Amino acid sequence: MQAPLQQVTFDATGDSIRRGRSFAVGAARELGVGPRTLAVVELLASELITNAVKFGGPGGVVRVAVRAEGSVLRMEVADSSVDAPVVDAGRPAHLGGHGMRLVERLCEDWGVERDRTTGGKVVWLRLATDCTFRDPAPACGNAPTSTV
């Protein structure tokens, strides 16, 4: 069963990172997501929203959406840029820029779609609602799905 989509839109400012992360965690909690998964939701929301603010274009908006799809949580972060995020595997750790590697490692699946409302993109991910993380590399490890 699919739960109704919960979403919020913010101006693309530094404060929207905190507000969007808080919204995503609260929405996931309301949908019955377990405590371990809530920590992952918080981390991945922060990474995606930070990217949307940083690379989404000046004066833009960021939309954060969360819904349950059975035992999977789907989170979306939309911005006004059409440029898909890049998983940068070759960058030294001290230089930062590893947010999409975290997304790739921790989620079930992720991808990029065109946002028909803004003309920008939506980066989405799917995450089990009750993560166990027994495997040190529990992730999808799949290439992202992109329609941008």
Task: Give a quick summary of the entry.
The chain is of the alpha+beta class and 148 residues long. 31% of the residues lie in helices and 26% in strands.
Describe the structure.
Helix 1 (14-30) packs antiparallel against helix 2 (35-55) and helix 2 packs antiparallel against helix 3 (99-106). The chain is globular, with a radius of gyration of 14 Å. The longest helix has 21 residues, at 35-55. The protein has 148 residues and is of the alpha+beta class. The chain has 3 helices and 6 strands, in the order βααββαβββ. The protein has helices at 14-30, 35-55, 99-106; strands at residues 6-11, 61-69, 72-79, 109-114, 121-128, 145-146. A 6-stranded mixed β-sheet has the order 1-2-3-5-4-6, with helices on one face.
Radius of gyration: 14 Å
Instruction: Tell me how many strands there are.
Output: 6
Shape: globular
Model regions low in confidence, pLDDT < 50 over at least 5 residues: 134-143
Tell me, rounded to a whole number, the average pLDDT.
Answer: 84
Query: Structural class, from helix and strand content?
Result: alpha+beta
Strand content: 25-35%
Q: Given the structure, what is the number of helices?
A: 3
CA(first)-CA(last) distance: 28 Å
| Strand ordering within the main sheet | 1-2-3-5-4-6
Largest sheet: 6 strands, mixed
| Share of helix, binned | 25-40%
What letter string, H or E per element, gives the SSE order? EHHEEHEEE
